[in-house]
């Protein structure tokens, strides 16, 4: 049998991982699991209070964690987050790019300002993260990046077009980044969650046009997912167990897109 890497002390033992969008939901649960699996984690989001509380939680449990306040739509903030990760932990082995904002409404009803903002965060922000992360990883000759898209990046549905356009773009960026950076030993993959019990889909303002109940009814497992279940997928993709996986789109949707 071949040697199994990355198992002693956890799937991410000894790795340094940057978690973008770490203050709530999928990002926060991923940070918890990455730390439990042995990683040193740098947390990034706009809310310092939430980052401070999560960092305190992780360090109180004996994990190595720190945070940087920043907006992924701002190039200097992204570069600073990556640089501070390297300064604190000595390297950058992995990254989860999770930050995003939602935008409901028919395409012709979305304002230009709202359209520009969601593109700035969900698309430009993702590109900025990739650019800075591969800059560091390329020098090390290795690394793994997981971007968070959505099943909305694989299909269309009414009333959420601007958001879905950004999630299609994330998949395109990921696939191109896998080609661009594979020769340098960097793996880039994307997770496409289905309905996940986060604050974004639980808003009472119609953020999910056909409703959470309708999505669950159309899901083979007949349930919505949890942030912790998405975190499990991200942990595996960042680990050495997924050493030959790059450019993949992993749906975490209970079979919704099957």
TrEMBL record:
InterPro entries: KR_dom, NAD(P)-bd_dom_sf, SDR_fam. CDD domains: SDR_c. It comes from the Bacteria. Transmembrane segments: none annotated. Gene3D superfamilies: NAD(P)-binding Rossmann-like Domain. Residues 15-194 form the Ketoreductase domain. Keywords: NAD, Oxidoreductase. Belongs to the short-chain dehydrogenases/reductases (SDR) family. This is Glucose 1-dehydrogenase.
